[in-house]
Amino acid sequence: MGWIRGIIVCLMMGFAGSTLAETGLTIEIKAPRQIQQSSCRDCYWGRSPPEVRRAKRLACAESGDIGCQIYLALDYTYEPPNSPESGKDLVAARMWMERAAAAGSAEAAFWMSDAYSPKPYFKLGLSPSPEKQTQWAERAAERGHTSSLKRLVESYTQGIFTSVDDKRALYWLDHKTVATSYWYAADACKWLDEHNQWPRALPFCTRAVQRGSLDAPVRLGLALEAGKGGLKKDRSRAIAYYADAMPDERAATALKRLADKGDAEAYAIFRSFGGLKNPEAVADLAKTYETSDPMEAGRLYRYAASQGHVGAQGWMAAHPDITPDRLAAREVDATAISGRFTVRDPDSRRVEAYPFAEAIRRTVQRRGAIYYPPRAADAEIEGRTVVQCRWSQTGWLENCLVLEDKPKGYGFGAAALRVVAAPLTTQGNKDAATAYAGRTVTFTLLWTLE
C-alpha cells in the first residue's frame, strides 16, 4: 500500500446521463504507510545472484547490523534456486536470529517466537513449544512489536498457545506500545468493550475510529448512548459516532431506532445514506416523495430504473414530464451555496462554521484518507466516483446516490458516501437550508495513491 496522496474533490454541476463538468475545489489528503523498516538500507540485494547476495549479507551481518542478521537468518531457511553452493543451514539461521534478538531486535524476537509455533512462517528447525513461544513473544512485545502484542492478547483471551488469563490480557492491552499503535487499537477496543471495561476502552476505540474502523464507532456510540461503565451519557456524540460508522448495519439500526423515537438528527443521518441501498429500497424511498416532491421521486426512481427495477421503470414511463433536463435544473453549484455550516469533530466535539464548500473540504480532509478503500489501497488501485445528494430542509445532505463508481468492486462508492454524506448542519442562518431545500448537489471524487 502506497502513500495516499489524496482525494481531489471537484464540486460540479450535472446529473447522471449528462456531461458532468468538474470545477474548483481540490483537497490534498495524506496517510502514512504502516510498515516496519529494517535498519539496513542495502541488506536485501534482491537482484544479485543468490551466492553474491548471501555473501554481502554475511559481511553486513558480521559488522553487527541487526537488519542484515535477520535477513541472513531468513535466507538460510530456504534453498535458493540455481545455487548449489548456497543451501539451507538451519543452525546458522537460528544463530543469526538469536544474535539479532540478543542485540535488542523486537522483530528477531518475534521470529523466534514464531519458530516455536506449530506452523511457523519461517522454519528454523525447532520443535513446537508454547512456553518458549510465549517467552519470545513477550520479549518482542516488551520492545514494542505490535504483532506480538496482538498475538499475546489473542492467546490470553482464547487460549491459543497460553492458558486463558484475563489479567495478563489486560496487562498487554495497557502496555505503552498499544497506547501509540493504531494497528492494534480496534482489537483492543473490541475486547475491552466485550468485557465491559469502560472507560478503559475509550482511548483505544477513539484511535480505532481515527484509523477508519467501522466497528469501533458503533461500540463508542452504544457506550455513550447507554452510559456504559460510568461513562457520561451523550446522545448527540453517540449519533456522531454512528454517522462515522455508516453504512455499517449496526450503526444504521441504532440510528433508525433513535429516528423512530423522534430524533430528527438521527433521522437525517439515516436518510443521507440512501445511495447504499438496493434498487428496491431506493424505489421504496422514492414512493414517499410521489406527492410531496415528484421531482425527487423521479430522481430516485430514475436511479432505481437504471439498476433494473421494473416498478421504477414503469413509473418513469408513466411520468414522461420528469426529464433529465428538468432534473438537471434542480442542481445547485456547491460553491454558490450561501450560509454558514458547522463541521463537528466527534472526538474533540469542537464545532466550527464555514461556507458550504469549505465545510465540505474540511470534512473530506478529516475523513478522506481514513476511508480510502483498504482493498483498493492494498492493490494500489485508483478510482473515480460521482455522488449526488439532495439538500434537506434541515441543512443535511440526504438521499445520496452513487452515479459513477470506477473501477467497480473496490468499495470506492461506499467510501465516497462515507466521505460526502457527513453531518453538516446550519448555524445562525436558517434561510440557508430553506433556500436550497429539494435542490441537488453533485461531487466528483478522484481517488489517487502516492
UniProtKB/TrEMBL annotation:
Domain TonB C-terminal intervals: 370-431
Pfam families documented for this protein: Sel1, TonB_C
SUPFAM superfamilies documented for this protein: HCP-like (SSF81901), TolA/TonB C-terminal domain (SSF74653)
Matches recorded under InterPro entries: Sel1-like, Sel1_AlgK, TonB_C, TPR-like_helical_dom_sf
Taxonomic superkingdom: Bacteria
The protein, known as: Energy transducer TonB
Origin species: Asticcacaulis aquaticus
